[in-house]
Specification:
alpha+beta; 5 helices; two-stranded antiparallel ribbon; four-stranded antiparallel sheet; globular; 21% strand; Beta-Lactamase; PduO/GlcC-like; GlcG_carb_metab_protein; PduO/GlcC-like_sf
Amino acid sequence: MIIGRGGPSLALAERLVAAAITAAKRLDVPMAVAVCDSGGHLVAFGRMDDAPLLAVQTAPAKARTAVYLRRPTAATVELAKSNPEVYGSFMTASPDFVVLSMGGEPLWDGRDLVGAVAAAGGTGAQDVEVAAAALRLWAEAARPSA
């Protein structure tokens, strides 16, 4: 089963974390990776040895932000540059920790948002690259079997 209730199944979420961590190892950048469901709740998490301590908080927050705003966090960072007051208010008004930082990617099942994956610990571009590895696995897993 690909989709659990409201998001990726635990088994698939763990595979997404593993794919992202493999990509981070190739970059030689210790990271934390989080997968959340459609409500922004953590489903799976992994932290590589020597990943920055703040990445433990930032990866789940990036995933939540991708769910709440229904777009990659890199796109939100760009939008915030031209309207910082609005996006700053999202961070203030949110009951959960959200961040304006690259590396969070929404997971779509057709037209439905079912969760997000995020990486933290590298540069913004590295975080995006590592999250993209999980997205590639998501795309493969979401393909109907022949």
